[in-house]
Design a protein that fits this description.
NADH Oxidase; 23% strand; globular
Length: 247
């Protein structure tokens, strides 16, 4: 049995060859790139602005109602559904982090590096927005239209390993641009990216429960096919996690 996971876990611990890996202790001494938050952007593509949404559902009810729903497509995902799910899982919030006006996000991120990007793949024509591939523009709470297209059952099977994915309305695809964190934390940055993806995933589940949208985390992804669909290289930016949505 391969012990790669053991070696990786040791290599990404806070010590390598006897030296401890910690950033400089005081924020004032950090280099500029450690304090600069990066945002992926697209020029010249159609933009779908998402409406502001303020659900008032009781948090404890949402936790109790959270469950995995493996595909139950009946109606379609609305623009308000997407707005709530994205804003309250990985979007900017209304509270400023510091005097510079930088806002908190829905998820914690190691060192505030935010190495993850989120894409929306709308699989069904019945969704309120055209089926296709979109990137979530976190700065202005919008969807950047990357491709409008229809997905056949064969197309969906080429992206996900489980047949029930064909009954889902949409998929949220989370990718990692790892150098954003690695410049500060080295190999340990990969741990932090995985933790952040989990935080986002739970936010998707809870926001989905608030909108009566079924959510299931998807481990069975065909990574190379999804990299091609998103037009990413799989190296500098790579698939981390997928969550399937249905309504």
């Amino acid at each position: 049995m391969s012990l790669f996971f053991y070696h990786y876990h040791h290599r990404s611990a806070d010590h390598i060859a006897g030296r401890t890996i910690h950033p400089l202790p005081s924020h004032e001494f950090w280099p500029k790139e450690w304090k600069t938050i990066s945002y992926k952007s697209y020029q010249g593509v159609p933009v779908v602005l998402l409406p502001q949404a303020f659900p008032s559902t009781n948090f404890f009810d949402l936790v109790s109602e959270r469950k995995s729903v493996r595909g139950a497509h009946k109606a379609g995902i609305s623009i308000l559904d997407l707005s709530v799910i994205l804003k309250y899982s990985c979007g900017l919030q209304d509270v400023a982090r510091n005097a510079d006006g930088v806002k908190f996000r829905a998820q914690p991120s190691g060192g505030a590096r935010f190495p993850l990007e989120v894409y929306v793949v709308l699989l069904k024509k019945e969704n309120e927005i055209a089926s296709g591939v979109y990137h979530y523009g976190v700065k202005n709470h919008s969807l950047n239209t990357l491709r409008v297209c229809n997905f056949s059952s064969e197309d969906i099977a080429s992206l996900f390993t489980y047949q029930w994915a064909n009954n889902c309305s949409a998929a949220l695809i989370i990718t990692g641009i790892f150098h954003r964190s690695a410049m500060k934390y080295g190999e340990r940055a990969y741990r932090y990216a995985m933790l952040e993806a989990g935080h986002i995933g739970q936010g998707v589940y809870l926001a989905g429960a608030a909108r009566d949208v079924g959510v299931t985390g998807m481990g069975g992804t065909r990574d190379e096919a999804l990299h091609k669909l998103l037009d990413i290289d799989g190296g500098q930016e790579s698939l981390v996690y997928a969550l399937m949505l249905s309504k």
